[in-house]
Design goal:
The chain is α/β, with parallel strands linked by helices and about 400 residues long. It is about 45% helix and about 15% strand. The two termini are about 40 Å apart. Keywords: Transferase.
Length: about 400
């Protein structure tokens, strides 16, 4: 099978880029050829004997909007000249003007725009808010076209599949393939908290994510911390430009909230804490949540995103991401009952073992092969119909 992946990154260290990396690696391992049209591609894929990397952005471009437009145009121009070289073209959402056979849906921009927690409004009189809203509107418009023109859509959760269906797209066209996790890198165990400047004696929760915007919803966690005075929270995320250290101070919890900045040692950090809290206002299927499950951590999430699909015995789901009281009650319970944390953590690990990267990649490749087989059958039926018509003419 000759596969083209059109995406911004194929990168072991990136979120969506990691998904692309695992698909490409599995395809190459099965003997398929993979061409990556992207801004960046892991050398392991690009330098493989059956791998190829087409760089679709060689020049620096100042804004994300202009970068997206440039990438969409350059990738489409290349695909128009090389489309016949591939059996399957997969794109990640809307990234190119050229229609793809399969579109992977990691995020539905129009759904985020409609979300009551979407923070960027015309009434804000903020150039930054206008810019963010404009990008979301443009992405939503073109992703709708990308979804409708594809033969198959791969959604990362049932939640996301439901959002896609709101475009009027048949459920038969949508396949759900969950993201995966490396259960060898992320596993239960002990780590030295002092590595992160943290005390060994305190109950400790973990939050990981972008803390410069409101979508990940650290603010509700900080408010909930006011009601759980024995709990400490470690926050991993880039602190520069973040309003949350000041908010923690205003809420009088800054002595128990430890901002450690962005770190590459997430696996070790997860082995250092007691549970993971992530009440995001909108997500499709965050990898960090799977990493927490694989690390044997109880997870606490809001019901406002795709994670609610699969959080059962290994975690707690509360409905309203802004409900600090509900979140505080769950965190208090986890602090007070260590044995419950232990049993939930074991269930979390067990669930993660059924969501490994090998299963994710196999799910994508199965969709590719099913689509190809369907096309072969359609082509065969077409040839038979032509033969029948020719035979009928001969008899006449």
């Amino acid at each position: 099978m000759r596969i083209a992946l059109v995406t911004h990154k194929v990168d072991f260290q990136d979120g969506q880029g990691r998904v692309n990396y695992e698909i490409a690696k599995a395809a190459l391992d099965r003997g398929h050829s993979v061409t990556v049209i992207a801004e960046y591609c892991s050398s392991e894929i690009a330098n493989h004997p059956r791998g190829r990397f087409i760089c679709a952005r060689e020049i620096p471009i100042p804004t994300q909007l202009l970068r997206n437009i440039y990438f969409a145009e350059k990738s489409a121009r290349w695909l128009r000249h090389h489309r016949d070289e591939f059996d399957i073209i997969q794109a990640n959402g809307f990234v190119t003007w050229e229609p793809a056979d399969i579109v992977a849906v990691h995020f539905v921009h129009s759904a985020w725009l409609r979300n009551p927690f979407f923070p960027f409004h015309w009434s804000s009189f903020s150039p930054y808010a206008y810019y963010q809203r404009l990008i979301t509107i443009i992405n939503g418009h073109y992703e709708k076209k990308a979804f409708r023109s594809a033969d198959k859509l791969i959604a990362v959760s049932r939640f996301t599949a439901g959002e896609v269906a709101e475009y009027g797209i048949s459920q038969e066209k949508i396949v759900v393939v969950h993201n995966g996790v490396d259960v060898e890198e992320f596993h239960p165990g002990s780590a030295v908290r002092s590595e992160f400047g943290l005390s060994e004696e305190i109950p400790l929760a973990l939050f990981v994510g972008d803390i410069k915007t409101t979508r990940k919803n650290l603010e509700t966690v900080l408010k909930a911390m006011q009601s759980v005075p024995e709990l400490h929270l470690v926050v991993a995320g880039k602190v520069e430009g973040s309003p949350y250290p000041a908010i923690a101070a205003e809420l009088n919890v800054s002595d128990r909230v430890h901002f450690i900045g962005k770190t590459s040692k997430i696996a070790s950090l997860m082995r250092s804490v007691d549970f993971f809290v992530f009440p995001s206002r909108y997500e499709a299927h965050p990898l960090v949540l799977l990493e927490a499950l694989a690390s044997g951590l109880p997870v606490v999430v809001s019901g406002n995103f795709g994670a609610a699909d699969y959080i059962h015995a290994g975690g707690k789901v509360f409905d309203d991401p802004n409900d600090a009281s509900a979140l505080a009650a769950i965190m208090e319970e986890l602090v007070r009952f260590p044995e419950k944390r232990k049993s939930m953590g074991a269930a979390a690990r067990e669930q993660a073992l059924n969501m490994q990267w090998s299963q994710t990649a196999a799910g994508y490749l199965d969709v590719y092969e099913e689509l190809l087989e369907k096309r072969r059958q359609a082509a065969s039926a077409g040839h038979l119909s032509m033969d029948d018509a020719a035979n009928s003419q001969e008899k006449k």
